User: Fold these one by one.
Assistant:
Number 1:
Amino acid sequence: ELAGRKSNESLSALRNCAYSSSIYKHLRSLEIEDKMRPLPNYMEKVQNDISINMRQTLVDWLVEVLEEYKLVSDTLYLTVSYVDRFLSSHALSRNKLQLLGVCCMLIASKYEEISPPHVEDFCYITDNTYMKEEVVEMEEKVLEFLNFEMGTPTTKSFLRIFTRVTEENCKKPDLLYEFL
Amino acid sequence: MEKVKDWNYKVVEKIGQGVFGEVYKCLNLETGKKVAIKMINIQNEPEGVPSYLIAGVSLLKELEHDNIVRLLDVLTTGRYVYLVFEYLDLDLGSFIRKHTITSIRPHIKTILSQILVGLAYYHSHNILHGDLQPSNVLIDLKSKKVKLADFGLTTSFGVPHIEYSYKEVGSPYKAPESRIRSSVYSTPHDVWAVGCIFAEMVSGKPLFPCGKKDHLSLIVSLFGKPTKETWPGANYISDLLHSHPQCEPADLAEQLLGLGLEPPGVELLSRMISLNPTTRITARNALNHPYFKDSHSSLSSPHYEAFGFP
């Protein structure tokens, strides 16, 4: 599982302890930036067709997609963060919610995975509810709206730094990640 | 180009052509400022927006520093992605070619320190530059700022190892450990490149010119064959070095002193181009090196005013 990290950990700068405290500070400051955070009440404020339950169903389904394509958990955290950020300012009809979900997962995989699944894979997993063109079009919309700022720090980015700093010789960091 | 929503740029001229697209010098019609726009064609991308762009642009967006060329904006149409960068008049490569080493000498410290400040910023943000070379170091004559650029959008960009391996051949600014597949590709790699740039400013020519001999043998002829002492990990490359004749290290220090570099400068350079990546100085520590002791004052000295040269 650990082999899958692309941007976060293969950047062995992290291994370079000389910089780990400033990297931590940077991630922390990114995390609290407004543009990286969804509105806490976007369901009431922005959405008129989607409910909290539908979002929950979507996330549960995304977890299954993640397992199906053997993606790393960072990809899931990023996906959900993109979905929430997008929904914080776009009222979406319920029949497009799943499209948004796969598009965000497509983007997150491209950001995080070494070999991301293909666009077709994401169409297939929706029972071909959406066409390839629709996915690609939506992808561009999401990227443009999120301004190509896809590097949201996840819980795992922080946990990685902590485990490294505290337990240099910890042999089972994977186990810790499982608890997330 | 003009079809893009919110497009308010006027193309002045084409300034470059890379693997991934063309670069244009443009004018922002609103602010009157010059920008460099990189145009990337994605219409033939079967998978939508390519991952190197997603990862790369996200990283660039995180970098906001005086010594790093800003990515000002990203615009998209169905078929193109436009990256709008700050524009600077001159790159260090042409600067070195156009001037004699004696006229460059007074500016080495300020240029080098600004490169290192920019690089330390990269590294503290968990990002490697990966493609430092004089043409990627831009100089703004008006503000006397030096800024690191990265229009290549290749390895440097996202940094993932897989893309990196495509570019095995390549820049003479690559560190020796980059020749070892299994080695850790990390921050010391960038510092090595800065060391090469430093030496190039002093001598007016590349430390390891590309061309006739391969990169590794040039390195070996300068340092001698790596030993257990100079580079404990060197046994990795022993295969590569097998055919190299044993040779004495060249006396680089003497040459550089002869070219007018002060002894602390020679010491700093030797720590930047240490063969062993684990003992190579970090960008941040390099900035605290005695060589820079008096450089902060020179930033505002009249001497520095001559930066533009007649």
Number 2:
Amino acid sequence: MSKRSVSFKIYRYDPDRDEKPYMQDITVELEASDKKLLDALVRLRAKDDSMSFRRSCREGVCGSDAMNINGKNGLACLTDIDSLAQPITLRPLPGLPVIRDLIVDMTQFFKQYHSIKPYLVNNDPAPERERLQSPEEREELNGLYECILCACCSTSCPSFWWNPDKFVGPAGLLAAYRFLADTRDQDTNARLDNLEDPYRLFRCHSIMNCVDVCPKSLNPTKAIGKIKDMMVRRAV
Amino acid sequence: MNVAKRTFDAVIVGAGGAGLRAALQLSEAGMKTAVLTKVFPTRSHTVAAQGGVAASLGNSTEDNWHWHMYDTVKGSDWLGDQDAIEFMCKKANEVVVELEHYGMPFDRTDNGKIYQRPFGGHSMNYGQAPVMRSCAAADRTGHAMLHALYQRNVRANTQFFVEWMALDLIRNENGDVLGVTAMEMETGEVSIFHAKATVFATGGAGRIYHSSTNAFINTGDGVGMAARAGIPLEDMEFWQFHPTGVAGAGVLITEGVRGEGGILRNASGERFMERYAPNLKDLASRDVVSRAMTTEINEGRGCGPDKDHVLLDITHLAPENIMKRLPGIREIAIQFAGVDPIKAPIPVVPTCHYQMGGIPTNYKGQVVVPKDGNHNTPVVGFYAAGECACASVHGANRLGTNSLLDLLVFGKSAGETVVEDFQSGNLSLKPLPADAADVSLARLARLESQTGGESVFDVGLEMRRTMQKHAGVFRFDDLLKQGVTKMAEVAERAKRTEIADKSKVWNVARMEALELDNLIEVARATIVSAEARKESRGAHVRDDAPDTAENPNGRDDANWLKHTLWYSEGNRLDYKPVNLKPLSDDVKPIALAKRTY
């Protein structure tokens, strides 16, 4: 790619300065080496240092730079700039309170993650060496443990928009199944109890926006289906 | 400005692997602990580690900590302290097994044990053949580890202050450490965190270089804070250039790719590492491989239209093995190099990756400085672990997988030392000086009122370019000398940075300006220490210190077998001896020898 200019429409709001949010039209000149949306945002910041967003690893593993890109949630660092229709419209992740510009308050998202007890429970005395797990048992964790907590999924989920305080959301439920699926974990019953109510698990209506937007190609809907299966099997 | 005071038994700055591991010790001991972190814990850069963590579990090949210790000392080019290295290698199995018990999803062998793969510089029987020592969760070991550690801290009810940036270290007139000042990103509010113990686990500063595998957040905050507060920095001339960063993008491609059988090739398709390291070949130590690649490129055997990179080839590996063991690498190659490594080789170049030096500590995680004739006097109330610290286990060159081990072992060790000191009554809450927050407030006030100043972006770019050109893979006397002058000029410009954004709320511009102050300390330390060290050792290789019979590989043990200590004030240099004596009688000192692979 050569040098080119790219036009944006970006959600701006600084509570310290603005009465209300607005969409800003802005154009930025890119260097040939700029490939990802994040590269363009970094160029933008060199021009206007008030343009605020989170970023860190720039390779899709830290989960900082999730945002709504032309109407779809994704990571700026994994989105090819030249694949996007212009003007590129950037908004904060939907459904969470905005702190400033593209930065949202993720308290509710993490509260739900924490609510599923996201840690291994095994009350047996710790052995001297590793607990054994067969490659097949370990395989069950693939597609679950790789979650980067970027919140692209939960903030694209209508059920989460509607009941962010009651519905755990796809990210939290994916994590819940990650521990349910782990042969080393002993807390299966308590974990299922914790999800057995009209909202926490069962507000998932398999809309599958979560699968569509996950930058790590994970499938929370499938994991949620497996938790529902476990509930049913436990009941009979 | 109104400065709130908060009081804790301990404050930990940083929530990557080392900070989280230390926090577990403190939380589980019931200490009132605050963990400050400028990003949500699972966003810390430990998350990006790929290939594995070293431990001589011997699950697939015979192994023991003596061999691991030998490899680490040799890898360090004998600059590592042998007491700390013995401690780390001996503790490796314990801390890795603990992580497994915390729930870390390690890959498994057929008999259900932790999967281990070969890695650069790790060998069996004192250098004879590659050993399988790197405990891995696919090629996402750091991610799996960081999440497991965070999850264990959720269980332990650790108190986090998320998106708080530490600004300055607070010391009293005796030099004792009393805590830090910190700014809450969301409000811009400054607080004093007053504590009996302060633990730095702030990571490295790989962002001083233009081409870096490091995250944006790796700005050496703890290292900069320590330097400004009068603590010397140890061995800052030693930076690891990882052989395989994606050409152009800088994103890391794990050495585990070569551990799984990947081969480096030049323009004619030659496996050139056979000429440089006949025994371990592509799995030689990182400094050796990075220099070999740079030599190939400099001598015209690079690949591509500009002959500016080499190729990392795994097309001969079974696609199912790539999908199973290296799935993240495949994604990265497709995303950032535009190639599917199952079908075509990945273009790679040596890229700045790891800071071997840092805040001087001992193996207990205590920060140590020269005082009253003792080179290693602990600073009361101050501890450090992980990449920001220099224990020193990596010396002049770190082995792959020893960084994740370092942060586990020394994060835990620092935590244990704090708990011991706390429980034995050795720690007390010392009175805060009246001017405890003045340095931070003055820095913020200067930024607020600066006019006609310098752009943070421009000064940062100049720093990164200067470091890249003047202190890279190969170093040259004249370039180093010019680099010292140039960095002094850049540092002067950094004192006059100006930001347009004056908002109190989540002000990224202010954060980047404050981070630049920290990076500048690290860059100055690096260039000044490097210019002064007139030998070649590990990752520091100079044109005027070539391989001779008297000084093999250019290493001059008679004059330079010593640690550098750089003081920010006046760019002053001091030196202290390397500890060649192990911690116990279980092992004899690893005798000095020429490094070959």
